[in-house]
User: What shape does this take?
Amino acid sequence: MSTPPFLTLPPSARALRVVTARGQFAALRAEPAGAVRGSALLVPGFTGSKEDFIALLEPLAAAGYRVTAVDQRGQYETGGPHDDPAAYAVAALGADVRALTAALAAEGGTGPLHLLGHSFGGQVVREAVLAAAAGAAAPGGAPLPWASLTLMSTGPGAIDPAEAERTGLLVEVLPTMGLEEIWQVMQQMEKADGERARRLPSPEVAAFLHRRWLANVPQALITTGGHLVAAPDRVAELAAAVAAGLPALVVSGVHDYAWPVPEQTAMAERLGARRVVVADAGHSPNAEQPAATAEALLAHWV
Assistant: This one.
């Protein structure tokens, strides 16, 4: 999971709920002080939330962008059904992204909209783009509603085998173990990992991570975790959308435990996408090196 470096919102940001045709989504919104150059929709990954992008809000808003980071269905403050696996299938979550896109466009005055997905969120936004591209190819279809696409710390298919093993174990125990019980086990594992123990968050952030974990809908974790361990490679399909006029960026930290960095580089080559590797960052450059990550995004959005 991503660990935000802090939780205090910058002066430019506020919490809100975005109302869409597919329900309401908890969000953080940062507004530029002056003219709006464009807007961005940021989608978090597995076990994540809108707070994963909190360190990006100020620099992106200062550059003139209206930024909206959301909790996906089943995450933290958005919530979702507890007994409907179909609600968390990647196609359904992609439909949520399209509904959010339409809602943001309806606000008006936001300029071109840039789409970003982190980790599992990258595969969700990929699904949204593929569905929209299929509609655009139909007679009378509308053009894609996004000015660009960013895939952050995500890969072409299933996660790294070691991560798949851990995620598969989580999926197996979720039907029989409570979230608090699982949390305590995870904390013991963290303490046993000397490297991770040296990077423990502040007490405030640690309390937030605990609260966020308990707010997950277990069925969402089961369904989305199951996707991650067996995700199909749809890069060739996405490359067609990119070639048709959707500029793409693949960005990651120099170290990534979820998908190997060379695999992400190869994905960028297959997409014909810009590639940025952020120094001194792992799986969450958005939280670990926000200034360098914001610089990469702004260069892509120009």
In short: The radius of gyration is 18 Å.
